[in-house]
Amino acid sequence: MRVEYVLKRVGLFVLVVWLASTANFFLPRLGGQDPIRQHLLEQAMLGGYVQAGLEEMVKEYDAKFGLDKPLWEQYVIYMGQVARLDFNYSISNYPRTVTSMMRDSLPWTIGLLTTTTLISFTLGTVLGALLGWPRAPQWLRLALPPLMALSAIPYFLVGFIMLYLFTNQWSILPIFGGYSSGTQPNLSLSFVLDVLKHAILPAGSIILASIGGWALGMRAMMVTTQGEDYTIFADAKGLTPFTIFARYAVRNALLPQTTALALVLGHVVSGAVLVEVIFGYPGVGTILYNAIRQSDYFVIQGIVFGVIVSVGLATLILDLVYPLLDPRITYKRA
Amino acid sequence: MSTVATEQAVASLAPPREPSLWAERAGSVRRYLRRNPALVVGLLMLLALLVFVVVGSFMVDLQRARPLSARALQPPSAALPFGSDKQGRDLFAVMVAGTPLTIRIGLIAGLIGTTVGATLAFIGGYYGGWIDAVIRVVVDVGLTIPVLMVLIVLAMTFRSGITVDQMALIVALLAWLFPARTMRAQVLTVKERGYVQLARLSGVSGPEVIVKELLPNLLPYIVASLVGSVISAIFASIGLEILGLGSADAPTIGMTLYWVNFNAAIINGWWWWWVPPIVVIATLFIALFLITVGLDEVANPRLRRQV
Fold this sequence. Notes:
The complex is a heterodimer of chains A (334) and B (307).
Chain A: H1 3-30, H2 35-47, H3 54-64, H4 71-83, H5 98-131, H6 144-152, H7 155-169, H8 189-226, H9 229-236, H10 241-266, H11 273-279, H12 284-293, H13 297-325
Helix pairs in contact in A: 1-13, 2-3, 5-8, 5-10, 5-13, 6-8, 7-8, 7-11, 8-10, 8-11, 9-10, 10-13, 11-12, 12-13
Chain B: H1 2-13, H2 21-35, H3 37-59, H4 91-127, H5 129-144, H6 147-157, H7 164-175, H8 177-191, H9 194-201, H10 206-242, H11 253-262, H12 271-299
């Protein structure tokens, strides 16, 4: 592996992280908003507090969060915190830190999305391979229009429809949360089953919404590989149709699918924010949604930054690993 | 079959010669559309949405899309064809007013994204050198960053009283990255073709080569890329709106879904509230998807023998 390529790729990653953190610092300040004053005002309105001490309170909190210092000093302090993965406290859930909230929610998102991506990739690819094979049973073709429709509509629409079906039509599955309220996360069998049961609807929505894309992609590649000279040659040699299907057409069509899988896996953390919101799944998306509703800037910044870094890191790793899988991709300079 | 297709492709790419060709061309367009059902069905679905909006705007006062226009939470009736929501919006008026607003966001952001992306792709891809290197690094960095996350930070920044057009501009800020990358790849291949080389050797200037040689030949790709950008812009705007970062007083489809989610309309069984926006979005996305499939066939004549 070329050292030069690795350095360049790592450099790109560092650039992404620096850009993301800098933008994260400056953009909210450009907007001229004052999260602490805003939050205190909201609380004052809700709770009917006396407004008299508000200015002093704003000053006190500004000093506490370091918002009274000059901008460059805030920036230096901020970058230091970013380097230590310290994203300050949540304004709405004080004294919880943003980092601890992310630590709790990331596994839910990564678990849900990795599993569903792998399942829909497998199902979609098998389906697409069969759809692109002339000898496959004819009734399979009926699956094509629904698959096309599913690949076209946004994934959260599937979520809404699933939510409807499982609340008003068949109420057999839990529709909200990641586990039954009142239970504490632990490693017992009953808790694991509970988690799986809660995951069925969000997972089902994501799988249904993404399976069409995989199937259509695979089908298109199958059509291409079956027109290649090596397939025609294999046919002329008198190989059985199944051998040609499995060893020639499918195997070669799998490569672009795997590339796409790698790309999608890289974006796992940001994949299904809205499905999490619809089903109240305790992942990154729901925390983000609540933070937006409560104007909890530190949480939003922390999560946005965390997601950007996770995606960047995953893409970096995949970029470094992928050429090992496909020898045709080299590290030569573009 | 394939020779006919090639001839048609050549005919559609060639510059207009004589007016007498127009009738012939209209015939070939008709014949072509018959073989490209995806494009036809997609366009018909878009047309259906358009008819709904136009006819609807004659039937209802669009001011009724505001809260407190009707009694809250009424199921559909003769007076309120789509019922009303919890804040008393006439949902028929909301759909008639909201559908064009949502499409408008997609069109503004998609047009800006495709124009900027195509311009950068043509300049970078054709001239190469340091400009190309800068564009490539920016696009590479930009595409690793999840769009929704950046849009969330931007929308938070400008949150107070955002309008539909500002929303479109925010979405447009990132909408050029993907067109720039795909189009640059196309420019790189077309630039090596004989006729471009010939133009360059004959001393035609760079901008002229881009406008007269590259642009007409890449037009099908640009149109396909525009539709793709419109799809992702609408998708991104609805995503932001469902998260609560939209324009609170604009009755867009995304905002309707935000209120649906906010008030748990699905769980409460207020079906008339969420069925229309979902039908509109599904129609819109399936129509645009079919149009991309159809345009892909125009842009990529090689796909034709497989259809």
